[in-house]
Amino acid sequence: MKVALVLGCGYVGQRIGKRLSEMGLRVVGSTRSLERAAQLEAAGVEPLVGQLSDSKTLKQVRQLGTDEVVYLVPPTTDGKDPLRSVLDVAGRAGLQAFVYVSSTSVYGDRGGEWVDESTPVDPAGVGLARYEAERAVIEAARAGRVPGRVCRVTGIYGPGRTLRALLESGEYVLVREGDAWVNRIHVDDLVTALLASLRGGTDGQLYNLADDEPHRTSEFANLAADLQGLNRPRWVSETEANELLGEVRLRRKLDSKRVRNASMKDELGVRLAYPSYRTGLPAAVAATGAR
Description:
With 291 residues, this protein is α/β, with parallel strands linked by helices. The protein is built from twelve helices and 15 strands. The longest helix is centred in the middle third of the chain and has 15 residues, at 128-142.
């Protein structure tokens, strides 16, 4: 039986693990939480509880004899990012694919212009740690050590991720000086795209994972409020937003770009169930209520 390893079983990772398990694979998922471990078991995923920076956990990873790896652990900036160690222990002869899940934040602020995989990154922006992790995977792939490919993911929404808590508390604000162009993808489509990269991606390649309709920040937030019977978010000045959010969060909120997904569709063959937030967000709100 093929073995799939999902490292970082949070909102997305749990769903990938469940899908792989339903496909007949033995799936092992890493988590630091005992509560999350019970959820993984219920989804048919064997929990691997521990820190990836821990030598005992890395030894368990080495002993699994993994065929496929999906790496969703966010990078750290303290010099202790476990990615390179994982690449070393996972890079065995039988490994068929290693998917590193990155972010379109590596492109930085493009003033609303379109970007694709050939667009130079902005390593001075908020995505610096992501970019450095990407390079480690691409270098390992080009050296023939790991069959790695990188997926740059846009904003994720879905059941339980509909801005409800932020809208209810009033913490979600819109910035008058910067109603940025943003990109999103429904979690179900994201899982489909990540699995397509796992099975059909090319080693050493980049793939943007996004839906078909970039939109203004306010468009998504206002629809989320309307669908859930909540007040629409208030508009504030950039100065007030900086006080509320802090510099890093504000920069991320003001980053404006439109992401092309042609490689995802043409090379990976992904067909989106929710090409736009206009259909995906109502479905996510309905699913949240049903759950």
